[in-house]
Design goal:
The chain has a four-stranded parallel sheet with strand order 1-2-3-4. It is elongated, with a radius of gyration of 19 Å. It is 52% helix and 15% strand. The protein is of the alpha/beta class. It has a single domain, classed as TIM Barrel, CATH 3.20.20.60.
C-alpha cells in the first residue's frame, strides 16, 4: 500500500506558508497541534482564544480548497473540543495518545482513591 502522509502544523509560520505546504506532492492530511500553535503566537495553552481559532479556520479553509483532510490532536475525553473540531470541518481526529491517556487515567485513579479515603478517614 501507499503511505498516508500527514503534516502536523504547530507554528504560525507554517500557517503563513500553508499554500506552499499544501502543494507538497502526495500530502494526504494536515493535523493541527493546538497547544504548540497557540504558544507560537504568545498564547500558550489558550487553545480556544479567538486569535488561535482564526488560525484553525484558516487551516481548515486551505485544506478544503485543496481536498486535503484536516484534523487535530484533541485532548483525552474532551467531548466539547471534539464537537468544535467536527463543526470546524475536521475529518481526522486523534482523540487519545499515550501521555494523555496516562494523565487522564492517573487523575481519575487519584480522584477515586481520594473519595474512598475521605469516606473512610474517620475509621483510621
Amino acid at each position: 500500500g501507499e503511505p498516508f502522509i500527514i503534516i502536523q502544523v504547530e507554528h504560525v509560520d507554517a500557517v503563513n506558508n500553508l499554500e506552499d505546504i499544501l502543494n507538497v506532492s502526495g500530502l494526504d492530511a494536515i493535523v493541527v497541534g493546538p497547544n504548540d500553535l497557540s504558544g507560537s503566537i504568545g498564547l500558550l495553552g489558550k487553545t480556544r482564544h479567538s486569535e488561535v481559532m482564526k488560525l484553525y479556520d484558516k487551516i481548515a479553509e486551505y485544506c478544503r480548497s485543496k481536498g486535503i483532510l484536516f484534523g487535530c490532536a484533541t485532548g483525552v475525553g474532551d467531548q466539547e473540543g471534539i464537537k468544535e473540531w467536527i463543526n470546524r470541518g475536521a475529518n481526522l481526529l486523534a482523540v487519545d495518545w499515550d501521555i494523555g491517556h496516562l494523565a487522564f487515567s492517573g487523575k481519575h485513579s487519584y480522584e477515586v482513591t481520594l473519595g474512598i479515603y475521605n469516606q473512610l478517614k474517620n475509621r483510621i
